[in-house]
Amino acid sequence: MGSAITQPRQQHLLHVLQQAECELSAQALHQRLRATNRSTGLATVYRGLKLLQQAGLIRSRKLANGETLYAPVERDDHHLICVQCGAIQALPHCPLGTAGLGLGAVLLQGFRPLFHTFEVHGLCSRCQHQEACLDG
Ligand SMILES: [Zn+2]
Ligand SMILES: [Zn+2]
């Protein structure tokens, strides 16, 4: 990729995201940074996240409530999200990988992908069952 991150601040941001057990919002990241005794303003966190994203090191996805979550790109997660109860399931395979859409196809159109997200919104099996019970 060639976009080396030289700023120790951004490296630290990336490190915290890599250590995190889940995706983090900028606010949550900010809180964790404060806990490690590194006083960083929220605006600096947002700026750092943007730079890391442009460097192709982290990905982001926006939730229905407007909150954005960040994770390192090497964690290639894909989600099935229930619109009713909010349950989130992970997909076992990358639908955009070689077996699926194939990122090579995107490359052919002159677009250089940095990261991708993939979400399917719908009803989980539990909520489908509840709906069926209500209807009957
Ligand atoms: Zn559900
Ligand atoms: Zn993927």
What does this structure look like?
This protein has 2 domains: 74 residues, Orthogonal Bundle (Arc Repressor Mutant, subunit A); 61 residues, Ferric-uptake regulator, C-terminal dimerisarion domain (Dna Ligase, domain 1, 2-Layer Sandwich). It is flat and about 55 Å long. Helix 1 crosses helix 3 and helix 2 crosses helix 3. 13% of the residues are buried. It is 38% helix and 17% strand. The longest helix has 13 residues. The chain has 136 residues and is of the alpha+beta class. One zinc ion binds next to loops.
Topology:
Blueprint: H1 8-19, E1 24-25, H2 26-35, H3 42-54, E2 58-62, E3 68-72, E4 79-82, E5 88-90, H4 103-108, E6 119-122, H5 125-135
Parallel strand pairs: 4-6
Antiparallel strand pairs: 1-3, 2-3, 4-5
Helix pairs in contact: 1-3, 2-3
The structure holds zinc ion (2 copies).
Name some characteristics of this structure.
2 domains, single chain, Arc Repressor Mutant, subunit A, alpha+beta, Dna Ligase, domain 1
In short:
With 136 residues, the chain is an alpha+beta fold. It has helices at 8-19, 26-35, 42-54, 103-108, 125-135, and strands at 24-25, 58-62, 68-72, 79-82, 88-90, 119-122. It is 38% helix and 17% strand.
